[in-house]
Amino acid sequence: MMTLSLWKFGLLLISLIGANGLMPFPENFVVAKLNDAVTLTCRTNIDGAVTWKFDGEVLVDFKYNIKQDGQNLHVTDVDTPWLGEYSCWRGGEMLSLTHLLLEAEDEEELAQFDSLITCLAKSYHCNFSCTLKESAFTAVRVGLGHDCTDGGKLCHWINSSDQNQDGGFQFEVSHSLSPYAEESTKLELTAEAIVDLYVFRTTRRFYLRDIVQPDSPQIGTCQELEQDLNVTIEPPSSWSMPHSFFGLEHEIEYVLKDDGKPARSLSSLVPKSISKLRVRSRDSLVLSTWSEWTPWKNVRTGEENLCKCRNTVKYCCPELPPGFLERCKKKRKKKNNNKVVRHLKDMLNENAHCCSDHSGAKTHHTL
Prior knowledge:
Elements: H1 10-20, E1 29-32, E2 38-40, E3 51-54, E4 57-58, E5 66-69, E6 72-75, E7 84-90, E8 93-103, H2 107-115, E9 117-120, E10 127-132, E11 139-144, H3 146-149, E12 157-159, E13 169-174, E14 187-195, E15 198-206, E16 218-224, E17 228-234, E18 248-256, E19 262-265, E20 269-271, E21 274-283, E22 297-299, E23 315-316, H4 324-366
Parallel strand pairs: 1-8, 8-15, 22-23
Antiparallel strand pairs: 2-6, 3-4, 3-7, 5-6, 7-8, 9-10, 10-13, 11-12, 11-14, 14-15, 16-17, 17-20, 18-19, 18-21, 21-22
């Protein structure tokens, strides 16, 4: 029997997760392949007879493929009807609980599961993040290293108990690589997920340098030269230090004033006749993935209303002389005061005109 498509469970499990929340991986579980035989052990130090239950119901009339042998339970020809929760009891005391799950083996579905996982590192620090872009899971976890790849007991699994706003799951993974040494071996990341008692499992192998994507850089000033603008660009605060060792290269995209056409430059020098620009960065040594673009910034140069440069988030401006913005404030205050004075004069003139009209009307009525 082939495993059912992961996508066929989507709508059902999204509603289930919405009602009950994402569940952690079971503390004790056994993963079997289709039609395999497994032995479930009652984990107790006390000898004597035990009673087995399946999904809360006592196993009295054992099926042809389920047999109790002392305290253990043998299940042969594992298939969908026999998946679920097995517990062993003595009287009213539950001694142990084991979940029997089925390993997903369909190659197409496993490839789909693998394609849902994305890992990115903002720098060469000791951690990176992985995202699982699907919400149709009842349990999800990831682990790093050979122990996790081989299913060893020493694996440190990282569980996700929360969903992102877009429905996926986020994991923060720590590693012990030195940021100053050249990578010689790949990282091994294993991801497991449960969908309706089926276990999906995949392992990724990659170098840390292959998943590095810096955060967006910071645009500083647009210094006006004779022929060009020199754009100052600062690395993002999350990037590895010292910056002299962990170099970044930047790409500037700008729009020309004359024709509105966009252009790009890998130099910090761009034409003076531009209206706006934005920047992105990547590791200059390994040519990592480009960062996201910064928001567009309008460019202010020359005498073109540099008082607007107080808004450095919106505008890229030259370094202004000391006290320049203070003078802008005074000019703005003076301009606003002049507006108030003109408004008061207009009101007085209007009132005087109205009084004159009323006086004339009274005189005419007396005559």
